[in-house]
Amino acid sequence: MTMKTFETNGAYSDNYKFLIGSILPRPIAVISTRNLDGSNNVAPFSFFTGVCASPMIIAFCPMIRSSTGSLKDTPVNIFREKEFVVNIVSESIIDKINLTSTELPYGEDEFTFAGLTPIDSVVVKAKRIKESLIHFECLFRDRLSYGDHPGSGQVITGEVVRVHIAEELLENGRIITSKLKPVGRGAGNDYFRCDDVFTLERLMNAQIQK
Ligand SMILES: Cc1cc2nc3c(=O)[nH]c(=O)nc-3n(C[C@H](O)[C@H](O)[C@H](O)COP(=O)(O)O)c2cc1C
Is 190 touching ligand 1 by the criterion CB < 6 Å? Predict the structure, then answer.
């Protein structure tokens, strides 16, 4: 096997293509926030992960918008309101979630645009997506910034202070993947279904997974 190798100081679009073509399938956080005028903003982010369980922390990474060189609406709202909701994506809503990634003028309600139903949260003011089966209400914790030019971006972490889950997903307190039907993001406009799950036992006694 011959390996191609390259430095990362060229065009950011080349680096970006390698990130999205190598790190996959990526989970998708659909983040809902409140705009300045009280309308709702929604957008998907696949540079997303869980960080730790106690406190319960998640992280996602909005890049600088390449078309304008400015912050995306989601981080603007989070830095002002100090809160947001992460909604998890199932196959049944992926088309609508894709619509929420459209660059709409600030203040245009993205629930309405995508045909999603906003419902109240318990702790935060940002709405949850009724059609999503799992919601994390989050308080803004940290921002790690890597610049303000196109290609750069940041890590935003949130502390999950309230979780909501559709009861139909649960069996003995566990989430059943085949019921959640999560969708992963690939390179370009590719997505993954998660309907070919397999299990491997681990060679250790104390398993947090048990
Ligand atoms: C499935 C999917 C995943 C995405 N993941 C990211 C991401 O991780 N980081 C990012 O900056 N943009 C990502 N985008 C693009 C944003 O959703 C898009 O720029 C959106 O307009 C941002 O909305 P906002 O300005 O309301 O925050 C993704 C788009 C899609 C469809």
Answer: no
Task: Kindly state whether residue 207 falls inside one of the protein's structural domains.
Answer: no
Does residue 198 sit within a domain?
no
Q: Is 63 in the pocket of ligand 1 (CB under 6 A)?
A: yes
C-beta separation of 124 from 84 below 8 A: yes
CATH number of the domain residue 106 falls in? 2.30.110.10
pLDDT attached to residue 32: 98
Q: Are 90 and 134 in contact (CB under 8 A)?
A: no
Within a domain: residue 171? Answer: yes
Q: Give the pLDDT confidence score for residue 207 in this predicted structure.
A: 63
In the predicted model, residues of the chain with pLDDT beneath 50 are none
Domain encompassing residue 27: 12-193
Domain count, the chain: 1
CA-CA distance, 96 to 92, in Å (whole number)? 9
* End-to-end alpha carbon distance in the chain: 39
pLDDT at 147: 95
Structural domain contains residue 155: yes
**Measured distance CA(104)–CA(110) in Å, rounded:** 8
Which of 36, 46, 63, 98 to mutate to test ligand 1, by most ligand atoms within 8 A of the CB atom?
46
